[in-house]
């Protein structure tokens, strides 16, 4: 019989292997270039730090975060009179882990929390909101939580039907809404239904919208006001879905959404198809908002809690 400690170790190793498999492109773009830079026993001078800066920027880490990292590495080398450039590689891992640790905050629903716990899912077109909703619903189903999905995406053809499919896969309930109503009314009714049926969690989908579309942003703020009106308080979680392939462009998207509605958590999708995983460091350093999940693929189980140490160990290698 496998004891609990063995089970946890197996689960942890499984997640680390999952990350290594899905972060291959980011590893090649970031870690392998850095290790090659340090492995050559280069002289520790300004030229080396400039090359490091260039590598970090190419990996889609913004200039502000890049300068911060390089400044720390340079000061460490000078203060400790480092001769071996490979030692700087190990210190770089430590400093980059420090950037990610504050945003490693899982989404936990307390037992004494009033029902429903409301998760409003937002993001631009094509980032995988509906798919991610299904995965999150399944994540909470495994925790023996009842989950109701609300199709607040009234713009995209087939959005309701797609969410219905994911509700079946995730063992959740799809709120039967009047398609003639607007998003705010649908979500308002779903909250009322959840209260009546004592549903644990309500996950509300919204239409994908460009971050610079003022009219659509106003609609999103209206949805937030309606939820607060029916829930008598702030939304429990405003979940921003971010496509890792977009890279630094996602920073501007995030900033606009956050200024308009106030984001409380991030789920990063499509990490398996990008070499731009460095954007995670930019998000963490600039906004310090929890990264809840990492997602890839179409399987219902292709979603994992974000773990900073595992993320670092997956992309920073020595061989």
Key structural traits:
319 residues, disordered N terminus, 13% strand, elongated, eight-stranded mixed beta sheet, alpha/beta, single chain
Report the radius of gyration as a whole number of Å: 21 Å
Order of strands, main sheet, comes to 3-2-4-1-5-6-7-8
- Secondary structure class reads alpha/beta
Write down the overall geometry: elongated
Q: How far from one another are the termini?
A: 35 Å
Counting DSSP E segments of at least 2 residues, the number of strands comes to 8
Spell out the helices and strands N to C: HHHHHHEHEHEHEHEHEHEEH
The description of the largest β-sheet is: 8 strands, mixed
What is the mean predicted local confidence, pLDDT? Answer: 84
- Put simply, the count of helices is 13
How does this model look, in words?
By secondary structure, the chain is an alpha/beta fold. It contains 13 helices and 8 strands. The protein has helices at about 5-20, 25-30, 30-40, 45-60, 65-80, 85-100, 130-140, 160-170, 185-195, 215-230, 250-260, 280-285, 310-315; strands spanning about 115-120, 145-150, 175, 200-205, 235-245, 265-270, 290-295, 305. The longest helix is centred in the N-terminal third of the chain and has 19 residues, at about 5-20. About 40% of the residues are buried.
């Amino acid at each position: 019989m496998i004891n609990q400690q063995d089970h946890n170790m197996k689960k942890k190793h499984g997640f680390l292997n999952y990350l290594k498999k899905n972060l291959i492109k980011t590893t090649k773009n970031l870690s392998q270039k850095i290790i090659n830079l340090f492995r050559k026993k280069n002289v520790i001078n300004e030229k080396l730090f400039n090359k490091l800066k260039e590598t970090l920027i190419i990996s889609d880490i913004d200039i502000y975060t890049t300068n911060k990292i390089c400044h720390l590495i340079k000061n460490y080398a000078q203060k400790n009179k480092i001769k071996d450039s490979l030692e700087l590689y190990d210190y770089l891992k430590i400093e980059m882990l420090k950037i990610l640790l504050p945003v490693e905050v899982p989404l936990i629903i307390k037992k004494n929390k009033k029902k429903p716990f409301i998760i409003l899912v937002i993001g631009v077109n094509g980032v995988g909101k509906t798919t991610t909703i299904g995965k999150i619903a399944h994540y909470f189903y495994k925790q023996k939580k009842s989950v109701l999905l609300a199709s607040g995406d009234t713009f995209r053809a087939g959005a309701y039907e797609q969410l219905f499919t994911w509700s079946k896969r995730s063992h959740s309930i799809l709120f039967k809404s009047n398609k003639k109503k607007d998003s705010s009314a649908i979500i308002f009714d779903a909250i009322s239904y959840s209260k009546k049926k004592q549903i644990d969690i309500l996950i509300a989908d919204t239409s994908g919208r460009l971050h610079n579309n003022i009219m659509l942003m106003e609609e999103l703020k209206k949805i937030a006001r309606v939820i607060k009106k029916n829930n008598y308080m702030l939304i429990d979680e405003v979940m921003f879905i971010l496509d890792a392939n977009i890279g630094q462009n996602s920073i501007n998207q995030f900033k606009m959404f956050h200024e308009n509605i106030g984001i409380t958590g991030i789920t990063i999708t499509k990490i398996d198809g990008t070499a731009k995983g460095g954007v995670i460091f930019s998000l963490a350093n600039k906004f310090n908002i929890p990264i809840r999940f990492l997602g890839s693929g179409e399987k219902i189980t292709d979603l994992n809690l974000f773990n900073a140490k595992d993320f670092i160990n997956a992309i920073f290698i020595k061989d």
